[in-house]
Amino acid sequence: MIEERAVGRIDEGPQARFSRRGSAPCPTEPVDRFARPRPAYPHHRDPRRRLPARQREDRIGAQRIADQAQTGFRGVVAAALIAKLADSSNVSGLDIAPADDDPAFLGLAHFEALAMTLKALLDKSRFATRKDLVRIDETIEATLPEMGEYSGVNVADIVGRADAMVAEFDVAKSAVLASVGADALLGQLSGITDVLPQAAWPAQVFAIDARGADPGMRDGRAAEAVTALQPILDAISAAVHADPPLEADQVVATDAQRAHHAIDRLRRLFGKDFPVLPRFSIAAYATEFNASLAEQGALTVTDPWRINGWLTQIGRVREGTDRLTAVLSAHEALCAPLASGDMKVVQFPHRSGQVWAALPQAWIEKEGTAFDPKDVPEELRDYLAARPGTPYRNIQRAAPSLSIVLYAPGVQAIEAEQTIAAFVCDDWPEFIPDPFQTAAIGFHFDAPGARPPQTILLALPPQVAQEAWSFDDAVDVIHEAFDLAKLRGVRPRDLGGGLGAVLPGNFLPHTYTDDLPSVRMLELMREARKKMLSTEAREVTLTLGKV
């Protein structure tokens, strides 16, 4: 049995904090430019791309404009862009370009598609620890601290990260409770939406600028909102400042409990689904891990792209792997293609010159290799002895106990005490059948003798006045049918992800000649209009969409 795992990107060194901007560069390098706002117009030019905002008669704030955005992400973009304006009182809406003029930068539509696909992956993934990257050896584990499910995690680091975020929350909490006036309070609240989203705001906050409210009492309503916010912020503060829970007879928290509590504190601040990746080390396993990592040529039979092909195939039957391939495909479609060697394989136990278990070469013995009677089951010895030269490989010795596929660009080796972070996309056990052992059952079944054809390929001549078919024409039609079948082989769940937002709606072939079959859209539109005008005046319902 082989345990296979698909592990997301491994990052080395300290993790950086990124601020959200309106457009994303590709490749990911720190930049200061973003999607440039187009001039604001009072009308809707494209309702799918426009971020609308309503103008109040008395005043309008940046936060109120951003609140009208279609998504939370677009609200952040709108607030950031409006904040750059010297005077936002005459802004009625923002038209943000869906695509950037510079191909090195992603526009809003493409960035949203990439972000949606990445979110789908992170929502279903889990953080990795040492036990996810190595085959557990009890001898080595006896020399290491017992960490439970947090094996190898750097406890001081994850606790320090939680403490830093709690300290920032304390500062923000004090600023909110000390706010005087409506503008100051709304400004402070808009800066902590990651911790306290608008859905968690009490009704008193929304009453500050409620329709029909007295503008002269605006600051008074803000004071009531501060009073209502205090118990909410106090509850969060009590949770993030609490000590790790202990057992009945426990005096001091273990390292595993401290790590678990630190992650809980971060998720209490940013949400229960907030992805937290603790840093960990692989310790004494580094020698065997790096030995396998260094033999990518032998593992992939000198073709590292076979890993990418395997991922695509496994993604058809494994949802976790499919989400990883969707992110990689989105990155290649919108940013840049993967480089050779970005995907890597590590197998345990490591054997020099071994082939990756997912390839057929791993289970085939070289021609002419004599079998070892000690490796052959008793029921096969006579069979192989009667057929000299038959290649036989003991799959029990050839099969690894753990095979890991890594997305780790630029990683050549990992030091024993080096801290890394990763997430696990998918894992599963797999049984490898012996090619010489029959694992099947037989039963009698009367198949129907007369069956209609399941598929018919109707071929049209490539030329209208063609007198006869040629063999090459028939072959070309079959090849074209296969190519079109692949183009149409898009599953509904492929369109439900982020890439579906940037794909065209429907493709209908259209030509102005009679050489090829086509759908004449203009004629259909003219006939539909003529039919509508010829009928009596009545209510007509039209279905709007894109073609």
Walk me through this protein's architecture.
- The chain is 37% helix and 7% strand.
- It is built from 19 helices and ten strands.
- It has four domains: 60 residues, no CATH class; 116 residues, no CATH class; 148 residues, no CATH class; 79 residues, no CATH class.
- The longest helix has 23 residues.
- α6 runs antiparallel to α7, α6 runs antiparallel to α9 and α6 runs parallel beside α10.
- The chain is α+β, with helices and mostly antiparallel strands.
- The strands form three sheets. Strands 6-10-1-8-7 form a five-stranded mixed beta sheet. Strands 3-5-4 form a three-stranded antiparallel beta sheet, covered by helices on one side. The chain has a two-stranded antiparallel sheet with strand order 2-9.
Protein traits:
single chain, 547 residues, alpha+beta, 4 domains, five-stranded mixed beta sheet, three-stranded antiparallel beta sheet, 10 strands, flat, disordered C terminus
Secondary-structure map with pairings?
Blueprint: E1 2-7, E2 11-12, E3 37-38, E4 50-52, H1 62-67, H2 72-83, E5 93-96, H3 108-124, E6 126-127, H4 130-133, H5 138-141, H6 155-177, H7 182-190, H8 203-206, H9 218-240, H10 255-270, H11 286-293, H12 296-299, H13 305-314, H14 319-334, E7 343-348, H15 378-385, H16 395-398, E8 402-407, E9 420-421, E10 423-430, H17 471-488, H18 492-496, H19 521-534
Parallel strand pairs: 1-8
Antiparallel strand pairs: 1-10, 2-9, 3-5, 4-5, 6-10, 7-8
